[in-house]
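User: Fold this; tokens only.

Assistant: Input:
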Amino acid sequence: MHGYAHLFVPGPTNVPEPVRQAMNLPMEDMRAPDFGGFVKPLLDDLKQVFRTRTGRVFVFPSSGTGAWEAAFTNTLNEGDRVLMSRFGQFSTLWVEMAERLGLRPEVLDVEWGKGVPVTEYARILGADRSHEIKAVCVTQNETATGVTSDVKAVREVLDALGHPALLFVDGVSSIASIAFEMEDWGVDLAVAGSQKGFMLPAGLGLLGVSAKALEVSQAAGMRRAYFEFSDMIRLNDTGYFPYTPATQLLRGLRVSVDLLLKEGMENVWARQHHLAGGVRAAVRAWSGCGIVAAPEFLSDTVTTIRVPEGVDAVAVIRTAYDRYRTSLGAGLAQLSGKAFRIGHLGSLNEVMLIGAVGAAELALLDTGARIEAGSGLAAAITHYRNAKTAQQKAA
């Protein structure tokens, strides 16, 4: 087939050409005398992306799920109470991991389309006068529903109550894409993955750890081996790792971090917000479609789109892939067959997302949606043009 295949799932994301080229090199010696000189500055610069000054960032050869496990096992003990909320597939999986590890999650179930219930968190934490709750978990960006939650507000609750629980954040589809301030928001453990905003293949689990969490980890009693913080610290301080690192992914990460820092994190966040607006404008123009996320929880990295009555979202996704060489994200769990997703994070621009909107519109029309041809495209184009015009006038 002619032309390129197009990827608009919310991860893995598109890999920029400079990042891909950086990984296209012969295998190297991860114990070479000069390898540490490459690794140490990379770990320091990752702190700028996570926005931490006093913490550390660990890079594990794993997915983000591995970093989840590292966060739990290095800072908690079996039987500890953990406050969590469940409002999508990935927040659900986080709860399941906590249960499997022997923690006692206190779970608040929230309607899919909404986010972390800050008021309920405040009520439960306020009643926990003996401070039995040792960790509070926030999925900043629920990729299944396109929902972003308010991490800062949860920290404000903890501070107002004087509650010492650690603040855990699942930032797999938010860190390096939308506003995240690890230090200023008092986040203790922040999980990310290489295949989202870091614009790499899957294979690296990144974990930001605060100074407080590092201190707590020295007394934590959960079993761990591969994900042991102390092993990582001892070797990372010399620029090396306690096991074989994913050297080619690290070379790509070096270029990815350079790209992010050159653009500036605030500019990255603003770009993602701008791009997301065009996709949302298109969805609103499609008759019978809707955005799963409530207006106050809209994500700037992924939009989950509910299809019209009588249209099968699975067929929409398959049609986009088979006929138009475009990958759209599937609706997960209770949204299977009812919704599809357009990822708009990572290395993207307006023209690429106009293509995503066009492919989705074609697939919707082909599967029976009674939408006006060109309606979503027109809305997205209008949004992007108006935003550019406003930006130029402001300058």
